[in-house]
Amino acid sequence: MLYKIFWQRSKWILLFAGLAIIASFYLQATDVVQQWHQSNEHYHSKEFNQYFKETPEVFLSDFKKGSTKEDFIRYNLTLHLADDDLYFRNKNDLAHADLLYYYHSTSSMSLWFKIMCFLTLGFVTFFVDLKTRFNQYLFTLNIKKSRLFSQKVLFFSGFILATTLLGCILAQIILYTSIPNEYLNATFIQAIYSIFSTTLTYFTLYIIGLVLGAVLGHMILGPISIVLTFYYLLFMIPLLPVKVNYYLSTLQFMPSFYGLHPYLLVLLILAIVCGLLLAYYSFNHTSLEENGSYILAPKLRLPIFLLMSVGTSLLLIYGYIREQILVGDFHKIFLYLLFIWGISIFLVYHQTIIKKWRISRENRT
Description:
The chain is mainly alpha-helical. The chain has 13 helices and no strands. The protein is globular and about 90 Å long.
C-alpha cells in the first residue's frame, strides 16, 4: 500500500529524475567519445606530423629514451588496458592508461551540477513530505514509523540506484563500442567493478542528501545547507591526510573502467549505513511540534554542533600543521575558527537563543 501511495504522489518527479540521470551519463559518454575522435584526427593529421618532425624533443621530453611518435600517440589516446589495476594508480610508464579524457568533465560545471542534483534528490525524499505535512497523513495510517521509514527509503533509493546503474551501463556500452579496443580494453571484472563503483559514488551522494532532509527542518536554512555541505566538502577534503586524499581520488563520477580503492569502498558502505541509521533516528524521534527546527531531533543538536565546531576545528588545525603554516599566518586560522564556531552556533542554536531572548523579554515586561 505504501509503495502505491509513494508512486502516485511522486511518479512524474521520479520519471523525470530517472530520465535526467540516464541522459547525464549518456552525454558524458558521448562527450568523451567526441573528444577522443577529435584527438585521434589531430594526431594523425598532416599538420601534427609536420610539427612533430620539426620539434620531436618538445613532445618526447617526458618519455623514455628511444620513444617514437607512435609511442606518444598511443599514450595520449589510450584510455584503458586490460592489465590495468582495478583502481587508478599514478604511474609514469607508457603501459598505463591516460585518464585525461575520462576526467575532463570532472573540472566542469556539469559535474558539480550533477553532484548537487543527487544531493538534492536525496534531500527532498524526506524534507518535502515534512514541509507539505504529508507525514501527518502517513502517521494516520496506523503504521509504525520504522516501517514508514524503511519502505520509503527502499522505494526512492531503489529507484535512484536502478536508474544510476542503467546510466552507468549505457555509458560503458557507448564508450566500448565507439573507441577501438587498442585504446580502450577492459576485462569483464574491470567493467563490472567500474559500474559498481560509479553507482556507489553517486548513491553515497544521494544518501548524504537524504540524511540532511531527514535531520533538518528549517524551511530556508535546510535547503541552503545542501549548498553549504557541498562547499564544506570542497574546502575540507584537501585538509585530510594525504593517504585519505589518495583514496578519495579514486571516486568514480563516470564508469571509466576503473573502480574505487578497496579501503574507500568499505568507507562508503559504512558511511551509507551510518547515514541511514542517523536518518532513521531523526525520523523516529521527530515530533510534529519540531517541524520548523533546524535540527528536528532535539538529542541530535549537541552531537551535530560538536561535529560542526570541534570536529571541523581540529581538522582545520591538522591541515595547517601538516602544511607547516608560518607563525604569522595564525591570525588567519583564528579567523577561520571564529567563523566555524559562529556559523555552527547560529545554525544549530539560533532558534533556541531567540526563543530564550523572547521569554526573557516577556518576563521583564
